[in-house]
Write a structure and sequence with these properties.
By secondary structure, the chain is an alpha+beta fold. It has 2 domains: 240 residues, Bira Bifunctional Protein, Domain 2 (BirA Bifunctional Protein, domain 2, 2-Layer Sandwich); 91 residues, Anticodon-binding domain (Rossmann fold). It contains 15 helices and 16 strands. An 8-stranded mixed β-sheet has the order 1-5-6-11-10-9-7-8, with helices on both faces. A hairpin with a 5-residue loop joins strand 15 and strand 16. The radius of gyration is 27 Å and the shape is elongated.
Length: 416
Amino acid sequence: MSVVKPVRGTHDLIGEESRRHQHVIEVAKRVTSLYGFEEWITPIFEDTRVFSRSLGDTSDIVSKEMYCFEDRGGDSLTLRPEGTAGICRALVTNGLTQSLPQKAFYVGPMFRYERPQKGRYRQFHQIGAELLGTSTPFADAEIIAMGYHILQELGVVDDITLELNTLGDQASRKAWREALIAYFKKFQSDLSEDSLKRLEKNPLRILDSKDPKDRALLQDAPALSHHMTDKAKGFWDKLRKALDQFKIPFTENPYIVRGMDYYSHTVFEFVTTKLGAQGTVLGGGRYEGLVEEMGGPSVPSIGWAAGVERLALLLEQVPSKIKSVAVIPFSDDVHDMTFSVLQDLRRHGIYAEIAYKGNFRKQMDRANKQESVMAVLIGENEAQKQVVQVKDLTSSEQSEVAVTDLVAHLKMKMAK
């Protein structure tokens, strides 16, 4: 019988890779909580309209990458390709638009049918944060600072650059959009197939194209700076000043537009050169109209998302396994005491394991393979005296300890 392989673009998280993955999530949860964010857990699939309405039909996600299916009731459902739309839907359906602002953190698997590459999979995991219901540029600076803080705590910030751009307000984008259409129409024969489709509907997306033919035209394309309103300029100036006050270094990149159609004003990406051509590890921006697409009121918001797999690849130090204790009985006759000791250690927060079979030597070999730091040895003599032998597997020192003193003894030894 042939071996069943994982589906292309999926992978298993085991051992070191799992520890890296969990470390990224734990750090993100801890840091976002310091900023007042609470975890929201939304369904892994939604009504397809949640994404087709919100992401825009010119985005690659909607046009090429969504996993959609019809359920037995005939409803069109989609495995979530990103987290923001589901958060905005949850804001509306849970009646939270009456108590703004809301600060939501999320983590979980996302699904996109795209070409797998380093750190990018068809099932991947994201952490993300959404600050819903505030329109001040200070909020933009603070949520960017929170992302920077997470990268600092992960120890990867020195390998990452923050790139920042503005898409202006609605009036600015309208004037810029018309200028871009007029410019790119002169070069229609040179545009890629995707950019030709975007030309009338969303020409800003052409600026994000990776096609060499498109990129050759970008240098002379109209710049937003020539079409920005005074209000948009003021927002942009205040954002950059606030980032300086937060002491967050950044570079301006006028070609960042992000992949979704809902962004306005601030857009940003934290990028690295250590993961190949697709170097963005955390990105986001300000958005308008997304909550309205879910049937709610106008709610200005700012948010970001980051790929857990890509951040995990950047970690230089692998999170260590929890220090464990191996409990080893010499015979079946002492199992009652063995299980009593095991559960007592676990109740006191000590990671304890037992080998279910094998002689003493094999059990010790297993303890060493699983990198246990201490071994608790229990024989018939020990059971009668209500003591155990505690062996330090690093130094090989061994001592007899009363069962009543075992927890305190192990905590002292393992704290060193």
